């Protein structure tokens, strides 16, 4: 087999409809908002665009509908330099997401409807087996069906690639998935769901990461928002502080920015803790801008913030 290269990502595209307001409305209440944006989103799609803009060679596997949102997805990949192994479906709408953004803090709440990408299955993975087997990095999440994610992780692992699993959105996962993960990368909410206890302190983050590695993951990276991230393997533990790149405007794509930047750094052979720093810098820039995919920074911006 030829030398492995590039990053392959399995995930969904969803058109992000983001509404900025002082709070969420109550049932039967109409609330005036202060801003609206429409743009490309979906965790896997955001991560693909983040990784490509950060300098990675990226292939994205997904499904979209033959509609305006599907066209938006393909245009976004063309602009970012992502190779789109994306099936276009008739009679099924492209995924979409409702995003509430707090106009003061920039924090968010999200409802996602996967649409066509909710039909991603083992057959999509098999159709892209060659790409997965030849990739240096394979990455996936949980917005598409779990069966497809498990099958793809298994193929990548058997082929000797590096696997990155972002267990998002939070939910139950089978124990068998941990052994397929070179890196499991949850945020603090997702990690708490997996391990069954709150993650509000550094010690709780350390304990959670230890649990994830004990279950079979080679390494755990727990992202902690403004506190940075915690990296843990059987032989190393390290907190990596967050960067500041300006005022926080919108945290919606922060996790995807981190994971995309992290994957690019790992694909370049950087040490895992350096890759975590690279991911933190990527996320720090993204949160200073509105939106998700459009907020992802360029390689030059990330390098400037890192100072190297």
TrEMBL record:
SUPFAM superfamilies in the cross-refs: Ribokinase-like
Cofactor(s) listed: Mg(2+)
UniProt keyword list: ATP-binding, Carbohydrate metabolism, Cytoplasm, Kinase, Magnesium, Metal-binding, Nucleotide-binding, Potassium, Transferase
Annotated residues for binding of K(+): 250, 252, 286, 289, 291
EC numbers on record: 2.7.1.15
UniProt-listed HAMAP family: Ribokinase
Family: Belongs to the carbohydrate kinase pfkB family.
Protein name: Ribokinase
Organism the protein comes from: Rhizobium aethiopicum
